[in-house]
Amino acid sequence: MKTVHYKYRNIIGEMARHGDNLKTLSAKLGMSYQTLSARLQGKRNFELPEIYTLLRLYRQPLEVLFADGLEELEAKTAIQ
User: Fold this and answer.
1) Residue 4 resides in a domain
2) Global pTM?
3) Are 33 and 26 in contact (CB under 8 A)?
């Protein structure tokens, strides 16, 4: 079985704290299970309405939920 590595670990943590899984959260976000999985893996970008919904659902600031992605972005821009 293939191991899946998620880029946004803080979102995964909040999902667990709120009793969500990929199926329940994808329904709340109005997307398929596969689309949510691709976004959490960093294969596809989250769209603004989805980000807003995550912020509202989990009551965490952007910097917390997307910390892993922001750190990666900062590292890329610091190199240039």
Assistant:
1) no
2) 0.82
3) yes
Q: Where are the alpha helices (DSSP H) in 4-66?
A: 9-17, 22-29, 33-40, 48-58, 62-65
Find the largest Cα–Cα distance for the chain: 40
Query: In the chain, how many domains are there?
Result: 1
CA distance 16 to 12: 6
pLDDT < 70 regions, the chain: 69-80
3-state SS, residue 30: coil
Q: Which domain holds residue 70?
A: 9-79
Q: Is the dihedral of CA 19, 48, 77, 41 positive or negative?
A: positive
Half-sphere exposure of 52 toward its Cβ, with a 13 Å CA cutoff? 4
As given in the structure block, the two tokens for residue 41 are: 């893996």
